[in-house]
Amino acid sequence: NITLGSLLDDQHWHSVVIEYFNNQVNFTVDKHTQHFHAKGEFNYLDLEYELSFGGIPVPGKSGTLSHKNFHGCFENIHYNGVNIIDLARRHKSQVYFVGNMSFSCLEPQVVPVTFLSSSSYLALPGTLGEDEVFISFQFRTWNKEGLLLSGKLQQASGGFLLYLSDGKVKISLH
User: Fold this and answer.
1) By its UniProt entry, which CDD domains does this protein fall under (predicted)?
2) pTM
3) Nearest Cα residue to 18 out of 163, 128, 146
4) Rg (Cα) of the chain, in Å, rounded?
5) Is the model's pLDDT at 61 over the cut of 70?
6) Which of 17, 77, 115, 138 could form a disulfide with 84 if both were Cys (CB 3.0 to 4.6 A apart)?
7) Which of the pair, 37 or 126, is modelled with greater confidence?
8) d(CA 128, CA 111)
9) What percentage of the chain has pLDDT greater than the value 70?
């Protein structure tokens, strides 16, 4: 587990960037970066099931994970250069969302999305053989706990979680 940031439950916008290339991971929260190597013998990322923003996608499949879904706002969600919120707002087939969401926030800026309940999340279908992944977004919340992003890795038969814990962002590869 890698932890970055503090006092992230202050209702101010915070920036998160995850870059993956050849097992090298750059994890950045509010311009503070940690560099580390992902364990494994693979040079590309297989997101087998899907990439989920704000919650765990399949009820009952979370195993021993005890992270509750995110309650707050996201904006500027980009996955390898694609604006995910724009796809969701236009109901494009590449993404789907579950639960109550609105495409606004108290301070409307760049079309944000608000997760209105703890059972809401936004998901992308899985992709195979990505040799480079770049994910970025901003979020704000009053909550100290919540799942920001999750994904399952095919080759490693594991996955990753990006979550708030005690007001700090943590990334966990499992």
Assistant:
1) LamG
2) 0.57
3) 163
4) 15
5) no
6) 77
7) 37
8) 29
9) 75
Counted residue by residue, the chain has a size of 174
In 3D space, the residue among 36, 66, 26 whose CA is nearest the CA of residue 165 turns out to be 66
In the numeric block, the tokens 């202050």 are attached to 10
Domain ranges of the chain: 2-173
In this predicted structure, the answer to whether residue 68 has a pLDDT above a threshold of 80 is no
Q: What is residue 134's DSSP assignment?
A: E
How many angstroms separate the CA atoms of 33 and 35, rounded?
7
Checking if the pLDDT of 155 tops 70, the result is: no
CATH number for the domain running over 2-173: 2.60.120
H-helix or E-strand spanning residue 84: helix 84-89
Euclidean distance between CA atoms 169 and 5, whole angstroms: 6
Residue tagged 């919650």 (tokens): 55
Strongest mean pLDDT among 39-43, 143-147, 149-153: 143-147
- Spatial distance between the Cα atoms of 76 and 138, rounded to a whole number of angstroms: 6
Find the angle CA(37)-CA(41)-CA(42) to the nearest 5 degrees: 85
